[in-house]
Amino acid sequence: MKYPEFHQQIVTTLLEGKFITQTDDLFYQLKKEEEFYVKFFKSSFGFDLHAQQEFYYLISNETNETTSRNFSIFFSILCFELDKQGKNFIDELNDHEFSLIDFVEIFNHSTWQEVIKINPQLNSEEGLKSIMNQMIRRNIVQQTKSNTYQFTKAYLVFIDFARSLVRSNEKSS
User: Fold this and answer.
1) pTM here?
2) Alpha carbon distance 60, 139 (integer Å)
3) Cα–Cα distance between 22 and 1 in angstroms, integer?
4) Are 144 and 97 spatial neighbours (Cβ–Cβ below 8 Å)?
């Protein structure tokens, strides 16, 4: 069987839990062969290939992954706190570079301390650095030359959950 160009790289990248974003050359090959890859991942692995305008990723109903949960909680708190500061969190995530110190400050002064204290990925500088490294590996964040972090469009996957968590907190307040 003849596979599309860059097949192995596309499959490996997605199976490692990474997002393929527009900034990656694989994105355009995947877009060109999208119908093939939807069928390929479903029949080969039982995974659903999700296509957004600016990125691709895989979903499996059999996954019970704490990393995605931690990312969702991270974004929920970050978006809530940016909004509380009067900032448009979508604009901030799209256009702003964050340092590790920015995240430490935001999470140390958050009103979500009960959630942060029980999550080792969020309750210390070391934990926040670890979660950022996990996001780098999955192409959710890119680290810049100045050691700051810039979000890729892949963060949008977690925003719906973040919005619902913020809304539930506002209702209970």
Assistant:
1) 0.80
2) 18
3) 28
4) yes
